[in-house]
Amino acid sequence: MKNTLAIQLYSLRNYEGGWDAAFEAVKALGIDTIEPWCGAVPKDPDSGMSVASLRASLDRAGLKITCGHITVAEYDTRYQEWKDFLLDFGSRDWVIPFAKADSLDEWLGFLPKFREMAERLAADGLSLAYHNHHMELEKIGDKYVMEHLLDGMPKLGAQFHIGQFLPARGISLPDWIRKYKGRVCAIHVNDSDENGPTRVGKGNCRAEDSIKAALDTGVDTFIVEVDLTRATTDDVKHDVEFTRRLIS
């Protein structure tokens, strides 16, 4: 199966000229797939893009989608609209982009809702996954929060974000990718060091090792999440080409 190289819609939020111009820039990078982000479609259509507008922009650009960062709140309020959108454009995964909790009990308290979501999504032909940020890489007891979530719900998929796996956290992302083999729906490709974001492969987060571990364990979707503007196009092109060489 051919691997998918995509870009996250969040990365395009500052592109000059709006979504249509951003999508043309994505196509110029040789990418034909976007990961949607529900933050781009607030409930008030006058303050941002509606799902219908996102559909129209993708149609005009001739782009596909993969996964989809869609919150629990959107599940509760606009499930049908998002479900139809994901399926119509070829996605197979609904990815919860974040949750917020102050204790292990609160984190584990999300699992009944996640199970409800997974069951409904499965009946409609979609899988549920969870995306990590820094808060899921904090250790509580003998495990990190992300491990508590994944171990507590074996049917929950994982979407790992390379640039959060700094050495100071004490976690090896390649090891986690192998540990959760068969459950990783996608990898978010970026990198960082102790001073902040870097070009992919130039930081301390073992980006290349993580991508290779993902490939070795059957992951086929790699989503570049680095901010794209006209000024950063050449830098983003480096990240895209770095990733493309590894996954091609």
What's the topology here?
Elements: E1 4-8, H1 18-28, E2 33-35, H2 51-61, E3 64-65, H3 72-88, E4 93-96, H4 104-108, H5 111-123, E5 127-131, E6 139-140, E7 143-144, H6 145-152, E8 157-161, H7 173-179, E9 184-189, E10 191-193, E11 196-198, H8 207-216, E12 221-224, H9 233-247
Parallel strand pairs: 1-2, 1-12, 2-3, 4-5, 5-8, 8-9, 9-12
Antiparallel strand pairs: 6-7, 10-11
Describe the fold and architecture.
It contains nine helices and twelve strands. With 248 residues, the chain is α/β, with parallel strands linked by helices. The strands form three sheets. It has an eight-stranded parallel beta sheet. Helix 1 runs parallel beside helix 2 and helix 7 packs parallel to helix 8. It is globular and about 45 Å long. The termini are close together.
Descriptive labels:
9 helices; 248 residues; TIM Barrel
